[in-house]
Design goal:
Radius of gyration: 18 Å
Strand order of the largest sheet: 2-1-3-4-5
Distance between the termini: 25 Å
Order of helices and strands: EHEHHHEHEHEHHHHHH
Number of strands: 5
Shape: elongated
CATH superfamily of the largest domain: Response regulator
Strand content: 5-15%
Helix content: 40-55%
Largest sheet: 5 strands, parallel
Number of domains: 2
């Protein structure tokens, strides 16, 4: 994918270098940063180079969630305060649902769980750059979809969307984990979604 600048932030040097190489082979320009602080310290330089709105729309920020001193969520907060609208793709550990929820609530374009195939990251970057409309709020459409759920399904959805795992939900509602999983399967089928991040986005009013 040509004419795309990827800003990659990760404290793991081997991961950072291997992903950067793959993205460059896919035709993207990549600039890497070893920490959130390093990236934030370069903001002025980066975005002076891309001062036009159209150029900024060709930037995608890819950041690890768990980093020392400044994590991915804190980095997103800084971007928000600086009014930087470039899409952010967050990388999390497997099963890290609470952090996935928080990232989506802060407006992440997508969340990828490690381990993932590099091709998945390329596709996610392409989608974030090419389809900014997916981040537009459409509360009426979202409300119509959520209206298909039963009261119990809606209750479980809300608990998932604030980061609770199935076992915690089961304990809270006094039902079995198997029953929670059944309701989760039903509600994802009704809503036509495949991941927690899609569920959070829909619950926040995004369509």
């Amino acid at each position: 994918m040509e004419d795309v600048d990827v800003l990659l932030i990760d404290d793991n040097s081997s991961f950072r270098e291997s992903i950067a190489l793959y993205l460059e082979c896919a035709g993207m320009r990549v600039r890497t940063f070893e920490s959130g602080e390093h990236f934030i310290g370069s903001l002025r330089e980066i975005f002076v180079e891309h001062c036009g709105e159209q150029q900024v729309n060709r930037i995608c920020i890819v950041t690890d969630m768990r980093m020392p001193r400044m994590n991915g969520l804190e980095l997103m907060d800084v971007l928000y305060r600086h009014h930087i609208k470039a899409p952010v793709i967050m990388i999390t550990g497997h099963g890290d649902i609470p952090l996935t929820v928080q990232a989506m609530q802060r407006g992440a374009a997508s969340v990828l769980e490690k381990p993932f195939e590099p091709e998945a990251l390329v596709a996610t970057i392409s989608s974030a750059i090419s389809s900014p409309g997916v981040l537009l709020r459409n509360p009426d459409e979202a409300r119509a979809k959520l209206g298909r759920l039963t009261p119990r399904e809606a209750q479980i959805m809300n608990l998932v969307c604030i980061g609770h795992l199935s076992k915690t939900i089961a304990d809270k509602l006094g039902i079995s984990v198997k029953t929670v999983e059944m309701h989760r399967a039903n509600l994802t089928a009704k809503l036509g979604i495949r991941s927690v991040q899609e569920l959070v986005r829909l619950n926040l009013g995004y369509e």
